[in-house]
Design brief:
- It is a single chain.
- The chain is mainly α and about 325 residues long.
- Helices cover about 75% and strands about 0% of the residues.
- The strands form two sheets. Strands 1-2 form a two-stranded antiparallel sheet. It has a two-stranded antiparallel sheet with strand order 3-4.
- A hairpin with a 5-residue loop joins strand 1 (about 90) and strand 2 (about 95).
- It is globular, with a radius of gyration of 24 Å.
- The relative contact order is 0.18.
Length: about 325
């Protein structure tokens, strides 16, 4: 096996980590206080939000799909939380039920899962391309979030002692062992995602569908169930992002999560890049341009990796074939 190709493969597989180190090194030189404790604390909170979305998005992408609705789903989930905390749940009888904070979190999580289930069902049952389906859901969710309160926010989500729904701010700003709860949530989802993809049959199914869906179908992989699951999981991650943002701001805004779907693709690199550009005073317009270029570059590199990986596989098969072939004896004179 050509060692040059193997070195290229290792570098490409570690491209995200290398890019992150380069971004950190660049801004450490350009911005003196980039690596201060206070700034790192702020960036870790941003990373938790983007990282949560990225975990759900990763499972979707592994199946060969995409979920463009995650930002809008985060926005509508935040509005659902705001409505439940502020107005409660009106019943047909005219009574109103107010939930405590854990119950609100559970209701919003279920809502996010349901949105993901709709995405998965439309994609698998009606054969709609993931890009088109989730793009449509993005508009549906964003418009619904605006309709919730006539385009207005739900401010002051402190709750009331008499209603037993105080303490919502703890989710976004509380700490455990000196670490913010959103970071713990991200770590928990990361462990769950890693366990699913590496230790369960479901994980093998996910990779099989992304590798070759036709072959996976012939092998008996339950494609519909697996795809519905990954979109539901993505919806769950988006729901927690909406909850965290609303908790940190103590306000539910219908435009929460705008363009989060793009940040989720780049995750850590995008977060550090965005925070660094803000500290350098780069205008919002140039930030959008640079983020777009980074995403396009990431896709180009990914395509190059796929081609190189296929070439390495062919080379291995050729070597195995040559090794298994019987030696040719010279003709006797």
């Amino acid at each position: 096996m050509n060692q040059k190709y193997m070195i290229y493969m290792y570098l490409l597989k570690a491209r995200t980590f290398i890019a992150l180190l380069l971004v950190i090194a660049f801004f450490s030189v350009m911005v003196p206080n980039f690596l201060t404790a206070s700034n790192l604390l702020i960036m870790t909170q941003h990373v938790a939000i983007t990282g949560l979305l990225a975990i759900g998005m990763t499972l979707v992408i592994l199946t060969g799909g995409i979920d463009l609705s995650v930002g809008a789903v985060a926005g509508i989930c935040g509005m659902v939380a705001g409505a439940l905390l502020t107005n409660g749940l009106p019943l047909w009888s005219g009574d109103i039920i107010f939930f405590n904070v854990p119950e609100v979190i559970l209701c919003v999580a279920v809502f996010g899962i349901l949105v993901g289930l709709v995405n998965g069902a439309v994609i698998t049952r009606f054969g709609v391309a993931p890009f088109i389906c989730t793009l449509g859901m993005m508009y549906v969710a964003r418009g619904s979030a605006l309709l919730f309160n006539d385009g207005s926010t739900y401010p002051n989500l402190n709750g009331m002692e008499a209603l037993g729904n105080t303490g919502f701010a703890t989710l976004g700003s509380g700490t455990f062992l000196g670490v913010y709860l959103p970071i713990w949530l991200m770590i928990g989802f990361l462990i769950l995602g890693y366990w699913i993809t590496t230790k369960t049959p479901l994980g093998r199914y996910i990779y099989a569908i992304g590798g070759n869906e036709s072959a996976a179908r012939l092998a008996g992989v339950p494609i519909v169930k697996v795809k519905v699951f990954v979109y539901a999981f993505s919806g769950l991650c988006a729901a927690f992002v909406g909850l965290i943002v609303a908790s940190q701001l103590q306000t539910a805004h219908p435009m929460t999560g705008n363009m989060f779907e793009m940040d989720a693709i780049g995750a850590f690199v995008i977060v550090f890049l965005a925070d660094g550009m803000v500290m350098m005073g780069v205008s919002d317009f140039w930030q959008m341009v640079i983020k777009g270029l980074v995403i396009v570059t990431a896709v180009v590199v990914d395509q190059f990796q796929q081609k190189l990986q296929n070439k390495v596989i062919l080379m291995r098969r050729h070597e195995e074939k040559m090794a298994a072939a019987p030696a040719v004896k010279p003709l006797s004179s």
